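Assemble and predict.
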Amino acid sequence: MIRIALFAVLLITGTARAATVDASLYILRDSITFENGVKLPYATFNATNSFQETNARLVVNTGDQLNVWVVNWDVTSHDFVIKGETATVTIPPGDSVQVNYLCINSGAFIFHDPTNFPDYSSTGLSGMLVVKDNVHQSFYWNVKEHQTGYNSTVFSGGSPDWSNYYPEYFTINGRSNPSINLDASARIVGNVGDTLMIYIANTGQSIHSIHFHGYHVKVVNSSKEPTHAGRSKDSLPVFPSETMVLQLIPDKPGEYPVHDHNLIGTTGGNLYPQGMFTTILIAP
Amino acid sequence: MRTIYTIALFLSLVLSSQAQVDTSVLLISKVSFQPQFELSDGNLIKLMGYTKTLSAPILLPSPTLEFEEGDSVNLSFWNLSQGAPHTIHLHGLDVDQANDGVPNLSFDVSHDDTGSYYFKAPHPGTYLYHCHVASVLHVQAGMYGMLIVRPKNSPNLTWENGYAFNSERAWLMSEVDTFWHADSLINHTWDAQNPMQYILPYKPQHFLVNGQSEAQLSAMPYSASVGEKVYLRLANIGYYGNRIIFPAGLNANVVSSDGRPLPSAAQSDTLEIYPGERYGVLLEANSEFTDDIEVEYVDLNTQSVANTQNVLVTIEGFLEVDEFKNDLLAYPNPATNVVNLPYSGSWTVVSITGNLVGELSSSSKVFDIRFLSAGTYLLKSNENNGVTTRLTVLK
């Protein structure tokens, strides 16, 4: 039974004062279609009851009280947790649960379905909570990859053999090159001298080594390697279940690629160029 | 035609060297249509790659490019491919868009054509260069190399006012999947209107350090003396992760990455390096020994170790006097009861045979050495970037 369904604006711009943020996430099952037309069964957390190939994103400010209703409109039971932050709750089909979370710590967090981890989480059901402590222009990358057949196995009740994992599709926010650049929340656009924040969550099972052309970025936070904060890098790995916050202050104009430097990650369905490849666009 | 190009390139290099360019370099991209690069199992593979001359063979990796900080560089490029365009992407140098070596966003160089990249060598450090056309194919085919920028007039410093070292090594890790070196890929067709390329599943059989693996690595052992500070530059251009495991006794201090000093140096016996990353590690041994540095190759999808390569480590002998750049830091020298050192604090005392003797400690720069018996010692500051000096004690 759905106890309540609150429609909320999920992208909350920065405000100076703590607020109560009410949001809803709808678990919906459909499919994801890649650049070459290949379609895989897929489920996501959605901001409305309309299925999207990319998971909804929750963006709040430090100090905010987040009250999120998770509504399961799938045909099977799902769990929900903000990884490392809240207790896991189980949501039967057609039911909903409210999760309350006081956003004390800033950074990026993963919310997902940990059932038979990493089965459901890696085949779709994992999104990003961003707790901001700044008002800078921000960009958000939920990076994931998929192997044909694994999604079908999971959504038919099976469990794939992750020890033989060899994904063929690589996405940022559910999209691959060239479509990633159509996602204004993913494509970095700014001006010389701007402070640009990049929030990354690796919700897949592969390590992605992200390379920035044109600029070094500063590691603000890494959930896996907290001691790496402050490092200036042009290439950096993002591990499965890791979240990362980067700061970019462009010193020159231009359009520069950002991509997975495991270059297999710049393909899709064994075709190059696709995959995790986007561009930074900086005006003078 | 090639003679004309050679003359034109030569003139371009001469002219640029007369202009506001400190350094001019020519790279030629070539293809070996016949298998010619020998792997550890004796099999030969075809390669794409860069060379500095027409007659030079294509090797893995391509030649290392070396510059000094602040150099204005003209990197001329002549593409002699199988028909595909190529570029030189200056990985990590943060050059401007025009010189970034990415097709469509910068420029590519057609087969049998030339181009030039201009840049100012930035921060001292370790970088890469590689082709960015059909990069997943062309990098695996062999179109990659290291690029090193050293501080101006200070080749034995990591960067200006950085760490001093006696010698340096550079290791570039990669892999080879021989199926990706078949003629259908090395000699692949190119349609500018449809640059899409099909790739095979990547299952490398060969895991390389500077193009070598297995028994071939015996030709490139890590050899150093006791007390010798070695700056090891490490880079990964492969599609696997690398986990470098240093043996006990070889003290590793990770000081830089991606051409920048780390905010805090990190002492560790293990270092992970992922595709495109570079690290700088200061290594030093306090005694003689023989062991291995292990290089593990980590599957990025399963995080399992697919292969391990071993580089023989031989720590033998002691720094010769003429290698000892800070030999005159202690005075008087020889000394009997007290010695003046350039820094207060604590200094580790090692015998000339490599045994730990003790520690000197003082809040001033004057140190009591009465507990030391007659002999020659190596003194290493426990701060101040590990400055080392030699001291002879008389009784």
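Chain A touches chain B through 44 residues (CB under 8 Å).
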